[in-house]
Design brief:
Layout (H helix, E strand, L loop, with lengths): L1 H6 L2 H8 L16 H10 L8 H18 L12 H11 L4 H26 L1
Helix pairs in contact: 2-6, 4-5
């Protein structure tokens, strides 16, 4: 699976990114399944513990990121606090688009890998 994922082109990666809610938001794109929404909510559960100030800063940084790169910030949120994700987002805003696209694709792979492992443990 990993070889196939990293063999895809950027349009394929961007399509996968669109299936995610922005970090700190509760709602993904309308086309996302209820199951995918539940996965994201669980993975971002620590973000909901953040202060309104941190959540506001995260929302603002998300907007800046999307304006700069043209796609949403993708990070494997499992186990990360909102503050940790905000720090990562701010750091990654320093990247050029090509570098950031590769990082986001690697994060998407981590998310997918974790979800597959969780799914297989549920069976």
């Amino acid at each position: 699976g990993e070889r196939v994922w990293f063999g895809l082109d950027s349009d394929d990666w961007l399509e996968a990114f669109r299936a995610h809610p922005r970090i700190g938001e509760k709602k993904a794109a309308d086309a996302v399944s209820e199951g995918a929404r539940r996965w994201s909510e669980g993975e971002q559960s620590r973000a909901r513990e953040a202060s309104d100030e941190t959540m506001g800063a995260l929302a603002q940084a998300n907007r800046e990121y999307e304006e700069k790169f043209g796609f949403i910030f993708i990070v494997c949120a499992t186990g990360k606090t909102a503050g940790e994700m905000l720090a990562l987002l701010r750091e990654r805003l320093k990247n050029d688009t090509e570098t950031e696209l590769r990082i986001a694709a690697a994060e998407q792979w981590r998310i997918t890998e974790l979800r597959v492992k969780k799914f297989l443990n549920v069976l």
